[in-house]
Amino acid sequence: MRKKLIEQLNELEQHRAISLHVPGHKNSTIGHLDILDIAHDKTEIVGLDNLHEPEEVLMDLNDFLSEKYKGYIAQVLTNGSTTGIIAAILAYKEIANRYIIMHNAHKSVHHGIDLAHHEPVITNSIYDIDLLPNDIVIVTYPTYEGRTEDIERIIEHVHGCGAYIIVDEAHGAHFDITPKFPKSAMNFDADIVIQSYHKMLPALTMGSVIFVNNRNISTYRHVMKYVNYIETSSPSYLVMASIESAHEFYLNYSDELFFLKRQMIFDALKQVGCIVGPQDDPAKLLVKHREHTVYELEQALIDSHIYPEMTTEDGVLFILPLSHEDDRYPYHVLLSRLEALNFVKNDIKTNDELYLLSNKVCIQHIIPYPPGVPFVRKGEVITAGDVKTLIHLYQNRVKIEGVTSNIEYYIDRER
Ligand SMILES: Cc1ncc(COP(=O)(O)O)c(C=O)c1O
Fold it and tell me: The Orn/Lys/Arg decarboxylases family 1 pyridoxal-P attachment site domain covers which part of the protein (predicted)?
C-alpha cells in the first residue's frame, strides 16, 4: 500500500528528527514562523498586491529588503534562487558576449545558460580567462560547504575588464548578520546577487530574494520581465510573509548563543571520534570520523534521527542552527544522541548497468544531488573513471540525477 507523504513527514516528527540541514528554521525551532497560519495562504485579493507588479504591501516588502544593502533593488522570489539565477542569466541575454562559469556552478546556472542559447565557458578560476567586455561571469559565493573567496577582488577584476558579475549567494542570505560572519558580495558592488532566504535564515522553503544593483535600471527591468516569465503567477503569501519574518530576524540577530552552542556541538563531535572542519561560514561544519567512512558516519547519524545536509568525500555537512534567546532547538537531545552514536557497516548497493555508460556521450547532465553541481555534462564523454566514481557514489546511496535516463537511452539503442 502507498505510504502517504504526510505519514512520512509525521514519522520524522514522532522520532523528534533533528535538523542540521536547510531550511534555516530547523523544523520551526529557529526564528518566528509560528506567526504564520495556514489561513494566510491567500491570493492576490484587494489589499494583497501583485508580486509581479508590486505597488502596495509587496512593494513595501521589497523596499524593506532593499534596505539590506545600499544601492540595490530587491525582489522577493517564491520559487527559490533557481528562479532568480535563471532570470538574471536571461536578463543579460541580449548583451552577453560569453557566459563564464565555475566548475562548481549549480545546475540552475547551466539551465539558465541553456535557455539563453549559449554554451558556457567553464573554468576553475576567473583569473585563468581573458575576460572581454560584456562577458557575464557567474560565481558561487559561498560554496555549498561554506567556503568563501576574495569576492571583492573578483568583482573588481570583472568590472575592470568591462564584464558583469552575477553572484549566486544562495547559501549566504545570513552574511553580514553580525561582523563574525562573512561579507555579502553586495558590499563590493556586484551586479546581481541572489540569496535563498530559506537555506540559512528562518524562512519557508523557496523563499528567496534577488538583488539588482540600481546602477543599471534596464537590467532590473529585464530581470523583472524574466521573473514574471518563469515564476508562478500565484506566489505563496506564506512564503512571502516568512521572508519578511526572516529579514526581521536577520536585522535583530546577535550571535553570542550561536557561538556558545556551536562550541558544544564541536566538542560533542570530537568526543565521539569525529574530525570537525570549520568552514569560512561559521554556520557550516564538515565532519569526518577517525575510524569510519563519511557514509557510515552519515548512516549512524540518520539511525539516531539526526539529519545532516549532505555527504560528499569531503565530509558530512552540518548546517548549524542560528541559535537565539527564545529558540526551541533540541540541543540536549542532539548532544545525547551524538554521545550514543552507533556505527554499522553499510551494506553495499550495486548497479551493474552503470558500466554500460563507459565511453558513451552523456545525453543528460549527471548531477549528484545534493550539491546539484553537474558531474558529467550533456554532450561530454562519460569516461571509465567517471563510471568508477558513479559506482562509488551509488554504492554509498548518494542520489544522482540523470543516470537513469542515460542508462535507459543506451539500453534502448542497444535493443
Ligand atoms: C549553489 C546553489 N545555488 C543555487 C541553488 C538553488 O537555490 P534554490 O533551492 O533556492 O532554488 C542551490 C540549491 O541548493 C545551490 O546549492
Answer: 16-122, 136-249
